[in-house]
Structures are given as C-alpha cells and as structure tokens.
Amino acid sequence: MDESPVTEAVATDSTAGAFEPKIVAFLCNWCSYAGADLAGISRIQYPPSIRVIRVPCSGRVDPFFILKALQNGADGVLVSGCHPGDCHYLTGNYVARRRFAVLNDLLEFAGIDPGRVSFSWVSAAEGERFAEVVRDVTEKVRQLGPNKKLLKEEVA
Amino acid sequence: MKGTLKVEAKSPEATIRGLFARWLKEGKLSAILSPAYSAAGTATLALFSNPQKLDEAAPLLPAMGVNAASIVAEFARDASPNAKVGLFLRPCELRAVVELIKLKQVAPDSLVLIGADCAGTYKAAGFRNVRGKDADFDNKHVREQSGYAENVNFRVACQMCEYPKPLVFDLNVGFIGMDADTELWVEAATDKGKGLVEGLELSAQDEPDKRKKALEGLSAARKATTAKRIEELDKAMMGPEKLVEYFSDCLNCHNCMKVCPVCYCRECFFDSDTFQRDIGEHVRVSLRKGATRMPSETLLFHLTRMNHMMASCVQCGICEDSCPVTIGLATLFKKVSQNAQKEFEYVSGRSLDEPLPLATFRESEFTKVGEE
After folding, report:
1. Residue B272 forms contact with A (CB below 8 Å)
2. Please, what are the domains in chain A?
C-alpha cells in the first residue's frame, strides 16, 4: 500500500493543454492482443492513447468493466476480440456481440456518447489493422473531447 | 381441455377456494401457494395444505406486496418426489417463475403453474385502508374488472401491463370478458393441468368471443398507457445529466435489487468486498473533481442492474413499490427491458423453450457490431 499522504489527483486532468484521450483497451488474448503484439514488433506507429488490459476472451468483458472504466476517468473504451467464427473458445465472441449490441442503447440512455465505446475484431495476423483501429478510435474520442459524464457523480 | 365453470353463490373467489379444497382432498396437490389475508387484514401469501384452513385463502386478492416468484425461488430450488405444489399466481409472477426456471433457480418438476387472470392490483402497503371492512372486496373487484375499467389507483406497473392472462400455465382460471357472477373460464394447457380439471363439471366450448375481445381491448388500452408514460419519461430524461437526476434521491439501500424476482444472485456483486474502499482511495477519487457524491456508486449500481435485468425483467414493478424514495423504476424498467427484448425478439416469461437472450446467439445477427 502506498504510505504517502494523498494530496493531489493521481490522474492528471486531461483538459489541460492539448487533449490526448485516454482509452482503455480490452484485448482478447488469442487474437487482438497478439495483433497488438504484431503491430509492435512490426514497428507500426499508432497513437499512445490506449491502456491495454488483456482478457482471455472478448466474452469475458462484462459491460460493467466498460462502465467502470468510463466512471474512473477513461475517455473511451475499446473492446477487441477474434473475428466472429474464429473465437478460440468457439462462441465467446458471438455471446459478447449480443451483449454489446444492447449496451449501446444503455450508454445512450445514460447520456454517454456511444462513440466512446468501440468494438472491433482484429486477428493475430492483422498488426496493421490493429494500428488502424487504434488510430480511428483515438480520433473519434478526440473529437468527442474529455469524458465528463459518469466520472463519479458530482454533487451538483 | 377448456370450458366454463359455474360460479357458486356469485362468488368467484369461493368457487376457486372450492377447487383448492377438491385438489387437496383428492391428493392431486399436496399444497397450494395462494394469496391470502393476514389476521390483520393485510395482503400476504400462504402455503395451504389443510382444506379446513382454506377460509383464509384469497386467490383473487387484488394487492401485491412481493412478486411471489421470489418466494417460489426460496422453497422450490430443488424438486421433491413427495411434493406437488400448486402455484396460484398472477401473470407477472408466473412469467418471473418461467424466467427463474430458465435461469435454473427453480426446479419445475414438483410445481403446477395455476394462473388466474389479473386486471391490475393495488400496492399492498395501505391496501388495508382501500379494502376497509368489505369482506366481498375481491369479488367486487373481479366483477368490475371483468369488463375493462381503468383504475388510476392500481400500481403503476399494472396500469402498463399488457398481459392480463398468463402466458405460460398448466391451468388458468379466467374472469376477464366473462360474467364473473355466474361463470369462469377454465383452460388446461398441459397434462398436469388436465389432471387437475379431470372430474370438474366444465361445459366444454371454445373460448367465448366476448372474452377474446375483452383481453385484446385490455392489452391495447394498456399499450397506449405504456406509450404515453414512456413518452413522458423520455421528455423528463432529455439531456445527458438527467439519468443522474432521476436517481438523485437514491439512498443506495438496494431494496429494488432485493425484491426483484429475477435478480437472482445469492450475493450481489455490489454488496461484495469489491466496493469496500479505503479512505485514501475515496479521497483520491474526490480530488479528481473536487467533490464527489456519497454514497458513491448509486448510478453505476442502477446502470449495471438495468444491464443485468433487461433481458429477463417481467415488468412487475415491485422495485418501484419497494423504493423508499419513490424513484419511478417501473416505467424506466418497462422502457429499458422492452427495448432490449425487442432487439432479441424475446418476451420474458413467454415460453419455457425460448433460450435466454444472453445465453444464446445467432451467427448472422448484429453483424454491424465491431465492423464500423
């Protein structure tokens, strides 16, 4: 445990200076995480906006994770898994897809721009596609600006 | 097997009590869960096994304090070879039982689902005053509601309910569209149900047109009320911060979760240690904005609950009744769950064979997700 007294926010305010979005990326171990790895070893450039969390399958991503990431200050969330039909566990991403399809409605209902939450399918061989997805998502979130919604409820 | 059943002494309730007595005496059922009046005159439920005790049963009692499916989930998790329990419940309660069976929380083998039409109920809280000392209240209610009579004193969820007749049942006893002083409509849908009506004097015939029309009319009227209420809700919810506002009275008591019949986890994630934070963490979060609302997780709780429940929500509205600060949960959940269920072409509690929406998939659906 950190023993030093807490006196300032650990997360710097993303509104100061030019806005660089912070995006939490849930990548499935078998496809998208390997795709990100390939992008890395191929030295393909993409914005340093994502914070990668490796999950066993896109089906592991509970919508709660997405809401929680947004609440904790992420400007955007990316969930990426194997292409439909290619799931390492055969059907995990089909189930995930159903879940995400209704999550969009709920996000909109909660006043969160659905553009903040992106889903994509990237295989282990698609390093270039992974970089492209990150570029797109970063640009989309940059346009939307810093996430002020849900970032813990304000008193007012 | 279906037909009309003669009502004795202008009392549909006593007639149904007579059926109970018969089933218990003949050993067709070992016990029956039915609405009942407590000694204090409040609405409750009881599990009847002795025919002599049936005077206390009030099968058509028009007030709801809990969704009985929650109680069924308490005692019918496993089947028993010796017990055959009849559940005499309202349509929304039976829909919740169906969802719980699919969620593997209720074992159907020892149960017989006996439904009754329901045209709407009062809140159990305060119902004693509505009923007063009127011993014939239930029958009067049935008489009045056998043709559709709008009643703004009904629970909000009931005013929006488009299912006055159960969707899944072994046996149903109907009064809507019938002359309830003289006859009831009895319909057995399964072998279990047929076993119960065997030996009853039913004048066999097709479902009367008058009844069909009354049911359709009632559904249509309720759909219109629902549309109106959702429109009002949408108006109140315009703008992104409105959901926070809608829940701003929330005390974080989690009653809505505890009373929800289909919110079935033994321990809620939100009551778990995950949300036990130390003081330092709370301060860190507060520093980000300067001030944060305490208790801190109310909106996240409600969003997650909506997300978890929308596929199975039976729109019984018991969450709203249990809310100490009267947040309009019934309309909110009606809207959210209807939208989600439409997306999956699913209706909660409609069928035992339809798989739960989030436990199944089709390869060809939602192909736009992940491809933009």
Report:
1. no
2. 23-144 (3.40.50)
